[in-house]
Amino acid sequence: MSKPLIGISTYLEPAKWGVWDLPAALLPAGYPRLVRAAGGLAAMLPPDDGPAAAAEVVARLDGLVVAGGADVDPVRYGAEPSPRTGPPARERDAWELALIDAALAAGTPLLGICRGLQLLNVALGGTLVQHLEGHTGGRGVFGEHTVKPVPGTLYATLVPEAADVPTYHHQCVDRLGSGLIPSAHAEDGTVEAAELPGPGWALGVQWHPEMGRDTRVMEGLVRAASTR
User: Fold this and answer.
1) 222 touches 4 (CB < 8 A)
2) What is the rounded CA–CA span in Å between residue 116 and residue 129?
3) What is the pLDDT of residue 139?
4) What does the DSSP 8-state code read for residue 26?
5) The pTM is what?
6) What is the mean pLDDT of residues 4-33?
7) Of 96, 114, 169, 192, which residue is the catalytic one?
């Protein structure tokens, strides 16, 4: 049986390599590495000039990962920007929200990581806390904390015990979007995972599994993608 094709969203940033200083579609190597370790094939999905292309892209995938990155523009959830919120990445917001909408409409298995969870929540009408302390290890350094699964959830079937996870975020879910339920919490009560119950497979985690050794969440996505 062929391995499922898992698309991973990327972002456009200025980058330098060799003699070049050009815009590049960037993705930390941990994401495709984790997809491969979980048994999938990884494909990078740079922002498209027209988000309408998202449905065509998703139709060719077996599963979708929305990667971590910049803060979601607060305009997307009806809020004024906090002084602690980073500059907007409007092109990326539009592209990834279109990918999420297309995946949900098509029943394509979806995993949101960090920003990806936040965007999933916003796509479904939820809101975000714009600044949160204590969920990084310092500027540019991943921290670690414990997350506890909610019994009976999809996440709990993948990781049934409390687990220490790599974390780097200063925003989080506030009001949950329509249909989403929390499936893991940090010790301070922060929603660390949320999912859509039902026949589909849609899960978001606030931490960064691509920075750790635990492949179980990604394995869950790959299994779901393999059975479509």
Assistant:
1) yes
2) 15
3) 84
4) E
5) 0.96
6) 95
7) 114
Tens of pLDDT along 110-119? 999 999 999 9
Whether 172 sits among the annotated catalytic residues: the reply is: no
Which residues have CB under 8 Å from 203's CB, separation 6+?
110, 111, 112, 154, 155, 183, 193, 194, 195, 196, 217, 220, 221
208 is annotated as an active-site residue: yes
* DSSP bridge partners of 7: 43, 64
Annotated catalytic, 91? no
Query: According to the model, what pLDDT value does residue 51 have?
Result: 81
Q: Which helix (H) or strand (E) holds 123?
A: helix 115-123
Tell me what the mean pLDDT of segment 24-29 comes to. 94
Considering the candidates 96, 170, 208, 219, report the single residue annotated as catalytic: 208
Q: What is the mean pLDDT of residues 142-146?
A: 91
CA 15 to chain centre: 23
Name 222's Cβ contacts closer than 8 Å, sequence gap at least 6: 4, 6, 35, 38, 39, 40, 63
Within 13 Å and on the Cβ side, how many CA atoms surround 55?
Answer: 4
Tokens representing 47 are 């922002």
The span from the CA of 9 to the CA of 46, in Å, is 6
Q: What are the Cα distances from residue 88, in Å, to 72, 165, 167?
A: 7, 27, 22
Reduce the DSSP state of residue 154 to 3 states and report it: helix
Strand ranges of the sheet holding 163-167, from the earlier edge strand across to the other edge: 41-45, 5-9, 63-66, 110-113, 202-205, 191-195, 181-186, 143-149, 163-167
From 131, 133, 210, 219, the catalytic residue: 210
**What is the Cα Rg of the chain in Å?**
16
